[in-house]
Every structure is written in C-alpha cells, then in structure tokens.
Amino acid sequence: MALARRARRALTVLVALALAAVGIYIASVVLNRGERPIVEGCTAPLGDAEQSLATDQAANAALIAAVSVRRGLPPRAATIALATAMQESKLRNINYGDTAGPDSRGLFQQRPSQGWGTEQQIMDPVYASNAFYDVLIEVEGYEGLPITDAAQKVQRSGFPLAYAQHEDLGRAFASALTGQSRAALTCTLRAPEAAGDVKALRSELTRAFGAMEASTAGKTVSLTAEGELGWAIAQWAVANAKGLAVTEVDYAGKSWVRDGNRGWTDSAAPDGVVAVTVAGVP
Known about the structure:
By secondary structure, this protein is an alpha+beta fold.
C-alpha cells in the first residue's frame, strides 16, 4: 500500500509539472503572438524584385558606391564595381587569397604581385575601390560593355563569365547608393546595442564622400546636399546603420526610422539637408 501511495504521489507530481510546462508555453505564445524574430539585412529593388545583402556587405557596397560618387563617375561604374566585388570577395574585406591568387586580398582580391599596391593598401577599402576605378576608367567604352567584359578587363580573372551572375545585385544597389533611385535601399535591424558616436559618423562620411558642409546638434548630424548626392548620402547612412547605430535618416520628404522596420515613409524632412541621427544610451 505504501509503495502504491508513493507511486501515486510521484505520478501526481509529474502531471503537475507537465501542466505547468504547458501553461508556460501557452502564456509565452499568447504574450508573443504576432512577434517574429528580426532577421537583419538590407534590400534594394530592381524592377519587381528585390536584391539582398547582409548588413556588413551593404556597408562595403555603400563605400564602393560612395567612392564612385566622390569621383564623379557614372552609376554604371558602381554597378561594375559592386558586381566585381561580390564575385571576388562576397563584398567582404578578406585578408586571404586562394590557390589561383595566394596573395590576393581585400574587396576586389587585388594582388600586390600584380602591381595593385601593398597588402596594407589593398586592405583599405577606399584605396582598393579607387584602384579598381583607376583601371576601369581606362577601359575604352566601359559604360557600354557587358558587366563581365568590363570587369574582366580590370581583373584578368580565370573565371571571366562569373561576374555576370551579380549584375542584378550590382545594378540594384548601385542605383540606390549613387542616388539614382530615391528612398530605395532599406535595412531591417534590431535595436542598437550601444549608443552611436556622432564623431565616428562624421569621420566615416568624410572617408566615403570627402569633406562636406555639416553640423552636429546632439545626436544628429546634418549635411548640406542636393538631389542625387543627397540621396546617395542618405542611403549610405541606412546601409551603415548597423555599424554606426543610426536610428533615423531624414531627407527630401522621406524618413527612414529604425524602430519598427517600416522602411522609408513620407515626412516633413526638407530638401537640401540630410539629417542622420544615431542612438542615445540604450
């Protein structure tokens, strides 16, 4: 009898624990109904489709495009550069090569042994981007060449046809990041984990676009820019929102607000000034 009572008590405890677990699960579902995990990333449209990049890739793409804008190059140059870098490094600043090019480095997998510069120089994305454009602009009629032909004349790759597969991605992000497409590039992000630094933001903007007229008020940096340049800067800021803790970008009647991940929405933002706000203390 004692053994039977102990068995019943044990069974009662097990049932109670199971019911408690079910209750916790149901409460969790109810409390979190409709909420989905945020998968971070950036997108840019091309026709009826969207092209996607991870946040670190988007930041590198924004730098490559900004260098082309700074140099006054046509958007096609940025398209070729982005497609090339996507093929060579997946738009990541890698510090290793492969069997075919063991000394290849950086966004474009340029080789010191082929005269592209020192390893330290090639690992600087600004230097690497300028080095790519220096050669590209010497290619006669590059704007009218297919992506794979233009890229191959610069890179001399063993796989010249591979660049073509990244043309749509290059076109989508180049169009947004050079300001040809307005309010096009957006990023889905979680809340910032730390406060943003306006000095770091201004430094990165100068590194990408060169010296610009800018002012700082609290956590907002405002830059004077018109038209396509303004949209290039605004969408550069969105592409760098993850790394620089950007929470809002305002320009020309549109605002990108990180909280809520709604993309660009209509606002009272004036023309002629790009305002970029970074996070305060979380």
